Amino acid sequence: MTWFAWRQHRGQALWAALTVAALCALMLRVGLHASHTLAPFRAAGCIGRGQDPSELHGSGCAGLEGFGPDFNYAIPLFELGVPLVVAVIGALVGAPLVAREFEQRTHLAAWTQSVPRRRWYTAKVLTAAAVLALTGLIAGLANDRLQRPLTEGGLTSSRWPWFFSVGLAPVGEILLSFALAVAAGAWLRRTLPAVGIALVGFLVLLLCTGRAVQTLTPTSHTTGPRPSVPRDGWIIHGNSSYHPASQFWPLQVTFLITLLVLATGLLAFGWRATRTHGA
Q1: Distance of alpha carbon 36 from alpha carbon 126, whole angstroms
Q2: Beta partners for residue 243, in sequence order
Q3: Which of 136, 180, 194, 248 could be joined to 174 by an S-S link, Cβ 3.0–4.6 Å?
């Protein structure tokens, strides 16, 4: 059954892989360009001194001031674009998984064979989810490599602003969008409305879970008469509550687990529609 599911949806897996490959190639090109641009400043010891013009002027590092304007486009393109791209991929793969069977009336044949309906649903979902998880992981790791020279050059203060677009985050995001689309397609029996609902639901759940992980997990607090958050900290409330750099990966894992739990619940909800809907 797994092999059948793979053959049935390998076209979707191929275009998803090609889309992410093109995105990763673009990330690699920008990252190499940024790293090459920083090379002479790195050799001159300019990196880490800060990008305050008063500090750079007359020190032989003044050219570093132009790094930010040259690479500002990377913020909307990759920091914001990666979660959006993986969400669209997940929705487009998940929506027709069950809905197309209803639209083409092929469920009448698929659900009357010797393969139980539960096994049919599980095989299709797990096969697609495995491919999508790998796709999200590749995109997250590639974007993590990209943000390093951009942060090093002072484009952002730390990698915290990239939290939802690097590392493990895209894995959970693509699976959440996929699960939303599967569930919506199973209940609505229509592919296009399921895609729309999945994307809207994804944005709402991403904002809610992201905010919950950021604010409900333990934080550190600054002390002293003039408290200030470390440069590599994730500010939560004003200038006193923050997540230190050491919490980056624990929070990534927390965020991933939260999204996986939501995705599992949504897939179970989709199974309920598949189980109860007849011809």
Answers
A1: 41
A2: 234
A3: 136
Q: Which residue has the tokens 């990666």?
A: 82
Give per-residue pLDDT as tens, 136-160. Answer: 999 999 999 888 888 888 887 788 8
Q: Using alpha carbons only, give the angle 159, 32, 139 rounded to the nearest 5 degrees.
A: 55
Using CA atoms, how far residue 233 sits from 17, 21, 72, 159, in Å, is 34, 32, 21, 9
What residue has token string 């939802």?
164
What are 106's two structure tokens? Answer: 């092929």
**CA distances for 163 relative to 20, 168, 201, angstroms:** 19, 9, 20
113: tokens are 């064979």
Distance of CA 59 to the CA centre of its chain: 40
Structure token digits, residue 109 = 């044949």
**Each residue's pLDDT tens digit, 206-262:** 999 999 998 888 788 776 555 567 777 787 766 678 888 889 999 999 999 999 999
Give the C-alpha separation, 186 to 94, whole Å. Answer: 10
CA dist., res. 106 & res. 279, Å (int): 10
Can you tell me the distance from the alpha carbon of 201 to that of 270, in angstroms, rounded to the nearest whole number? 15
The DSSP element (H or E) to which 41 belongs, if any, is helix 2-43
CA-to-CA dists, residue 25 to 55, 173, 246, angstroms: 35, 21, 30
Alpha-carbon gap, residue 156 to 151, rounded angstroms: 5
